[in-house]
Amino acid sequence: MRGVDVDHVWRNGDMYVQQDGQIVRVLDNGNGTYDVVVRDMSNPSGAPTTVLKNATERYVNNKIEGGQWE
Fold first, then answer.
1. Cβ neighbours of 39 (radius 10 Å)
2. φ, ψ for residue 31 (rounded to 5)?
């Protein structure tokens, strides 16, 4: 989570829905890496369940192509 502007990613990232219903936002850093924020919208705190800094393009594509993110 350190170094990721969660609100910026949430506002500007591409949106996907994870298999378990959580919302995923993916923001291209422009250097071949992505910041990822995952939130369970039923969580009253609104805190992210997962935050990834500098995820690889391969990681993101594997999630999309594998059907984990739609």
1. 20
2. -130, 20
